[in-house]
Amino acid sequence: MNPELFEPYALAHSHNSRPGAAARRGAALAALLLGISACHGAGEEPEQEVTGAVSTGNDLYSGIPQDGIVLGEPSAPITLLEFSDLRCSHCRDYALEILPVILDRHVRTKQVKLVFRNLAFLGPSSVQAARMAAAVGMQDRLWDFVDRFFRIQARERPAITDELLLRLASELPGVDAAQAMAQRDSPEVLQQLEAARAEAEALQIRGVPALFLSREGQAPRRLRLSSMSPEPISRAIEQILLEPQPPR
What we know:
Blueprint: E1 6-7, H1 21-33, E2 66-67, E3 70-71, E4 78-84, H2 89-107, E5 112-118, H3 124-137, H4 142-155, H5 162-170, H6 177-182, H7 187-202, E6 210-215, E7 221-223, H8 231-242
Parallel strand pairs: 4-5
Antiparallel strand pairs: 1-7, 2-3, 3-5, 4-6, 6-7
Helix pairs in contact: 2-4, 3-4, 3-7
């Protein structure tokens, strides 16, 4: 195993100061270069930045199986576990700039399946968005909703209202938006978010995005992102695929 690709679970740091926008962007890049997640603490708001990926993504998940929080071929040998908060600008940047490459390289080729764990810790808006995403996920369109939500966050910074959430869900083909709205406070949704919180606590996650790779029968290993690119993730996936597997 190449230790440069992975990091100890407890490497995430928190920040108490609130610097200006330029300093925050610099800190975010430094955090990614060090493999440290950059969104922390209740009440933090995402930057109003536009990425080059905003106008794409209409067919991002077309043809890829979805089942609740899982995206990809169920029998894929590797699982990429993602912890995110929908109000986190760094999670948004990962989803719009890195994830599409991982989908094409590793998910569509059936090497990897993705699991989304929603940590709603950036205030009430995070909770609203997380509950709606989970409810849409009950119709197996969570990943489409998350992508649509991040894209509108990249263009603007709208207030998270019932009207916005209903509109985003209604734009997804095959989704009954009214049903999703009605299921936001269901036991299934609350259980899903509590399970994400409990798993994050067990893995000592203190910031997002946090990414873990695992193979069946192995403990998850936290990725060390050496750059804001998909290359460290691809290298780690390829390394795991080459590792000898224990006999069943």
